[in-house]
């Protein structure tokens, strides 16, 4: 059975004065989340933090009791997919309602990418909204698992014959879907069956916008330590300019270490144990004497 070993890291970058990214690692649920907020008056960090906290709270609540879905249960999806989508949609509604109530939070929103691992099914479920990405690194190959919800991608889908020069003129970093924009949101889903040694990355565009996929692959394959991989990725993104907040969460899959049954533990070999006696100090040792071998005379009979 595989288990997920995960670590995350976030950095403000070199061009921003505060960090609007958030991430969460809930190892007890094998749940991993990255969010990249946006909005004036520092509301972006509020939105991203609300996203990670709302999804985490939803999972904690549904783990303690029967899941009460606030939305229709989609029978075409697995329970894990329904749970992940519901958590993201709950977060969306809370962010949207907060933006309506608070002038400082008006117009705030956030991207999100979340991954949920089922050990029993050995399957990783990924849901995302916006341009925060999920990657898989397997056998020396990096694969982008998510498709950015961006104006650039919409143009490319509508006009696939554009030349490279025309594509270079298209607007970048304009997202077409985010949490908090409306009272409901469509969550894109995908799933994958992890293999031993696979690394899955969740990241904000502060990483994917500063590093080519080949650079990400090279760094991740340089270490088996997921914490070190996150540190190296953020360091390289800053070396390349650090134009945005940078967040990365790395998940490595490895074999579960088998538990040793006490009844199966090795025991002492049968037989009588042999111990070496400890001699007393020389001053206390007794000098042996030769045995007395002289004949013993017969004793005289007792007088009556």
TrEMBL record:
Residue ranges, compositional bias (Pro residues): 294-304
Molecular function terms from GO: protein serine/threonine phosphatase activity
UniProt domain PPM-type phosphatase: residue ranges: 6-253
Top-level taxon in the UniProt lineage: Bacteria
Region (Disordered): 259-304
The protein's name: Protein serine/threonine phosphatase PrpC, regulation of stationary phase
InterPro entries, sorted: PP2C, PPM-type-like_dom_sf, PPM-type_phosphatase-like_dom
Organism encoding this protein: Chondromyces apiculatus DSM 436
């Amino acid at each position: 059975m595989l288990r997920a070993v995960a670590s995350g890291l976030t950095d403000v970058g070199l061009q921003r004065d505060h960090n609007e990214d958030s991430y969460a690692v809930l190892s007890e649920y094998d749940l991993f989340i990255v969010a990249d907020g946006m909005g004036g008056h520092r509301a972006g960090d509020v939105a991203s933090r609300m996203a990670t906290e709302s999804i985490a709270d939803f999972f904690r609540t549904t783990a303690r009791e029967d899941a009460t879905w606030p939305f229709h249960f989609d029978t075409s999806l697995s329970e894990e997919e329904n749970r992940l989508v519901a958590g993201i949609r709950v977060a969306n509604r809370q962010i949207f309602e907060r933006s309506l109530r608070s002038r400082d939070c008006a117009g705030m929103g956030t991207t999100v990418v979340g991954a949920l691992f089922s050990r029993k099914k050995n399957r990783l479920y990924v849901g995302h909204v916006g341009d925060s990405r999920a990657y898989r690194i397997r056998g020396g190959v990096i694969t982008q698992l998510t498709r950015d919800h961006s104006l650039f991608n919409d143009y490319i889908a509508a006009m696939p014959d554009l030349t490279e020069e025309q594509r270079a003129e298209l607007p970048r970093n304009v997202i077409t879907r985010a949490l908090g924009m409306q009272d409901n949101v469509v969550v894109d889903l995908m799933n994958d069956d992890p293999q031993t040694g696979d690394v899955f990355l969740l990241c904000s565009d502060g990483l994917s916008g500063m590093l080519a996929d080949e650079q990400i692959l090279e760094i991740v394959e340089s270490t088996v330590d997921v914490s070190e991989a996150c540190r190296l990725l953020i360091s390289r993104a800053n070396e390349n300019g650090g134009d945005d907040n940078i967040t990365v969460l790395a998940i490595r899959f490895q074999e579960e270490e088998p538990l040793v049954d006490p009844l199966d533990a090795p025991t002492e070999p049968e037989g009588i144990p042999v111990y070496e006696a400890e001699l007393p100090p020389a001053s206390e040792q007794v000098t042996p004497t030769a045995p007395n071998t002289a004949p013993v005379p017969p004793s005289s009979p007792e007088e009556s």
